[in-house]
Amino acid sequence: MARAGQDSVRRLKSNKKRKASSNSWLTRQLNDPYVKLAKEQGWRSRAAFKLIELDDRFRLVKGAKRVVDLGCAPGGWSQVVRKRAPGAAVVGIDLLEVEPIEGVTIFQLDFMTDEAPGLLTDTLDGPPDLVISDMAANTVGHKQTDHLRTMALVETAAHFAVEVLAEGGSFVAKGFAGGTDAELLALLKRHFKTVKHAKPPASRKGSSEWFVVAQGFKGRGESEDSAG
């Protein structure tokens, strides 16, 4: 029990070997209610709550039959899909190793490789009606470079969704504010009936991350006709 006058916020003991940024991240983790709640409820990461909150708002997952989870490590988003759409076929991909999840086929592979898209769609035995992406590029410490690298992944995920989604399907992806997403939004607005930005409550207030939610995929034929 904390003594009277003791700081109620958990703080790390100083460690000269740790970088200041690492100390800051660890302190946030220790005091983050979503981290605690994720552990209590059995989610693999606090990111699960971001998809839960997006699904509560946009009704993305319920009724989904085939789902692709891009950048699925450590598995929180796939867990949410399995919980909310237990009958759905789910396939995930990530560079990192992911512990098995019942009902989810997981590939440890770079999504940017030529064989990855076909592998994902072949596994589902039919077009997905939901593509979700929590992918982000490894940071190099240069804000503009990190932003551009992540947005390149988001745009690749969007092009993949446009190529494989079933008519009426949805696409959700994490991005970061930075003003270079005009082409991405143009692509999505051309192919989906609605495109919105959202920042779920589970996203940290100080974070520049946002999520793009595109719903009502028009189908490739209709989209091509409307474009030209």
From TrEMBL:
Residues 1-24 are annotated as: Disordered. It is found in: Cytoplasm. Its EC number is 2.1.1.166. It comes from the Bacteria. Residues 43-217 form the Ribosomal RNA methyltransferase FtsJ domain. It is an enzyme of class 2 (transferase). Residues 11-20 have a biased composition (Basic residues). The active site is at K174 (proton acceptor). It catalyses: uridine(2552) in 23S rRNA + S-adenosyl-L-methionine = 2'-O-methyluridine(2552) in 23S rRNA + S-adenosyl-L-homocysteine + H(+). S-adenosyl-L-methionine binds at G75, W77, D94, D110, D134. Belongs to the class I-like SAM-binding methyltransferase superfamily. RNA methyltransferase RlmE family. This is Ribosomal RNA large subunit methyltransferase E. The gene is rlmE.
